[in-house]
Sequence to fold (339 residues):
Amino acid sequence: MENKELEADSHFKIIELLKELDKIGVDAITITSPYLCELIKTQFPRFKVTVGLYAYAFDLNHIKRWIELGADEITLAHHVNRDFKLLKKMLLYTKGKNVTLRLIANNLCLHMCPYSIMHGTVQGHFSCSDSCSRGDIDYCLMKCLSTKIEDMSNLISSDWIRPEDLCYYEKLCEETDNFNLSIKLVERTKSTKFLTRVVEAYARRQYKGNLLDILLWPKSDDMVVKTEPTAEEMKTMAELYNISQMFNYSKIFDLPNIYIDNTKLDGFLKKFVDDYACNHKICVSKQNIDVTDSNYCSYCSSWVQRAIIYNGEQVEKWIDNCREFEKALDRSEVFRSVL
Fold:
């Protein structure tokens, strides 16, 4: 928020917004600012305050401190999804404390993604009407896609939760006698058709099809926002960028056909329920691993051949284009000098 919650002019604009939200009957507010958490619980105690994903709460100390700040619900970092021993400790700690823990089930972020903080911050600025950021190039999304398509074990190691595996989380609640655990399904950029498909799959605890069809995969058919640039915007872009390179960038979102057979993933999560070691090992492809080195793990890679089908020619063509754009970006060849 660029510290705007602590600057006089914007501070009172936030207060007026909160008053309006209270007036029209809004029940809950999602924040990542500790100060806004305290402010809302002080001045608008009726609101339920949810701590958002980008606060990156991933251990017991985070939970403790957000509870002390007044949080009613805490969204946990993605990698907590499969750490059942930690989840159990969190549920035991929060039992009786009137706070809910929340997991995001169908996101497709890279496991331990190095782009996540940058991406969340960048998207936050893009969404502000007074931002100077144009948002023509989403570097983080591009790198996320290329990392997963070049090595599809990253599609498996991403911390999603299948509809069929919700039972493991329900069992955890029963074991701890703490049912204040919720599942969030995303996302706001997707169509009603996509959201309906997702909700039905998780409500039925079953999906027989391409797992990517219920995960946050940027397939164009499922996206809500599809705006073509105006003539004026095209003129501005031509002044700022090498248009041929921007054309290559646009082709990155013409994704190759990849099919993750969800029915072939039965039993996949059991390993994590019994023994989660992902934060202590390096996730690698099976063909690149030295099996004698205990620092590496290729478990997710071993599921690629079982569950993933793809068009090799499409994938290679996509990778070649993406690599060409990435090289041009690193060499500053995408941009026109404005100096």
About this structure: The chain has one domain: 52-330. Residues 52-330 form one domain. The chain is about 45% helix and 10% strand.
